[in-house]
Amino acid sequence: MPRPTDSRVTFNPPHCPNLDCLFHLDSTGWRFKRAGFYRREARPHRIQRYRCSHCHRAFSSQTFSTTYWLRRPDLLAPVFRAEVAGSGHRQIARQFGIVHATVQRLIERLGRHCLLLHEALRKRARIRIAAEPIVMDGLGSFAGGQYWPLELTGLVGANSYYSHDFVITERRRSGSMTDLQKKRRAAYEKRIGRPDSKRLTHDVAELLRTNLPGDTPVELRTDEKSEYRTALKRLRYDAIKHETTHSKVPRTAKNPLFAINAHHMFVRHSGANHKRETVAFSKRIQAVIYRHAIFQIWRNLVKAASERQPIETPAQRIGVTRSPWNVGRVLEKRLFLGRLDLPVRVRASYQGEFTSRFVRCERLHRLRLAT
Ligand SMILES: [Zn+2]
Q1: 61 alpha carbon to ligand 1 midpoint, in Å?
Q2: Distance between the two ends of the chain, CA-based, in angstroms?
Q3: pLDDT by residue (tens digit) across 195-210?
Q4: How many C-beta atoms lie closer than 10 Å to residue 47's C-beta?
Q5: Cα separation values, 191 from 149, 358, 363, Å
Q6: Of 33, 100, 170, 219, which one has the fewest beta carbons inside 10 Å?
Q7: Distance between Cα 32 and ligand 1 center (Å)
């Protein structure tokens, strides 16, 4: 007898999973046939298979699950929770009795899913973005070692705390260094090159272009970083009212940049890779992107905007969702790359194209059977 959770009882395929099929984007009039079962080791053991009547591609209920092709589907949600609870990947591995590489692969999959989920909600967030001031600032961190700093620039709603987007920029190591450190930096730069100093301006301009409507008046709050001013000049968005605050102003709740300061505090608090003086730092830039995509979804949809009023999430405040989501709901449905319209940078993030100059023979994510 089928169990109540049996995929056969509850599941209805929403569209053809084949990217090239006429019914991939629009399932109106789509027909499919049930085509037996397959057995797997994880529960539920019996998985219903189907066949598209148009393109004849076979698929199953698992094709539409975030756990497709996973040997341990039970680990996806617990690893998500451990990631945003400040655990390092080796700590997560020990907690669940699995190897570190498995955690890494699950985090990559979660990161890709969260990037798509954020994009699926972008349309709703974008129409409401001008309803409140937007705050932008960068968080200093590093990947691969202290010689490879990076800046994580975020864009957050001043009252809702909704994180609209982020971009990661490589920076050159600066600040006080010993003579030996200076020599080492020079040797590294000679061998693998130096990050482009204009990159931050370029990335910030792209971040603003992707997120802010050019014609609606909106207040943008930042500190006095010259790159932000140059980026805004380049954009020529006349409707943007740029308000700056000096970075030495006390970072209290009264500071106009409070939303982004608090956001970055949470990033360090919740992600092991951004803690100061940690050994759990990300070893590749792409990993920073995947992990921050997970954090962003958790911060927007799951975590309450304020600890004092733990009812509303940032997504509720901005009107993107009606109620708080739990991790189960975040991972409820697999999203398909081809069904979403992604900005170029986000597509590159999804496909793992942000390589790290300091990693030799970096393994890239190659799509084979799944997208
Ligand atoms: Zn089809």
Answers
A1: 14
A2: 34
A3: 899 999 999 999 999 9
A4: 20
A5: 17, 10, 20
A6: 33
A7: 8
Q: Distance from the CA of 144 to the center of ligand 1, in angstroms?
A: 43
Mean pLDDT of all residues belonging to the chain: 91
Q: What whole-number distance in Å separates Cα of residue 330 and Cα of residue 66?
A: 10
72 vs 2: which has the higher pLDDT = 72
Nearest alpha-carbon partner for 272 in 75, 85, 144:
85
Q: How far does residue 353's CA lie from ligand 1's centre (Å)?
A: 29
pLDDT digits (tens, 9 = 90+) for 6-24: 444 578 999 999 999 999 9
Kindly state the average pLDDT of the residues 356-363: 78
Ligand 1 centre to CA of 128 (Å) is 36
pTM for the model stands at 0.93
Distance in angstroms (rounded) separating the CA atoms of residues 316 and 322: 6
Task: With beta carbons less than 8 A apart as the criterion, state whether 290 and 150 touch.
Answer: no
Q: Dihedral of the CA atoms 138, 241, 209, 264 (nearest 10)? A: 20
Ligand 1 center to 43 CA (angstroms):
27
pLDDT tens for residues 288-344?
A: 999 999 999 999 999 999 888 778 999 999 999 999 999 999 999 999 999 999 999
Tokens 């001043």 found at: 158
CA of 62 to the centre of ligand 1 (A): 16
| Of 117, 111, 211, residue with least CA distance to 164 | 211
Ligand 1 mean position, distance from CA 53 (Å): 7
Return the amino acid letter for 41: E
Residue 20 CA to ligand 1 centre (angstroms) = 8
Tell me the CA–centroid distance for residue 63 and ligand 1, in Å: 13
Q: Ligand 1 centroid vs 25 CA: distance in angstroms?
A: 10
Distance from the alpha carbon of residue 56 to the mean position of ligand 1, in angstroms: 6
Q: How far is CA 88 from CA 93, 107, 112, 116, in A?
A: 9, 11, 19, 24
**Six token digits for residue 41:** 């080791």
Ligand 1 centroid, distance to 117 Cα (angstroms): 23
57 C-alpha to center of ligand 1: Å? Answer: 6
Tokens of 110: 């979660």
Rounded to whole angstroms, what are the CA distances from 20 to 17, 62, 98, 233? 9, 19, 37, 42
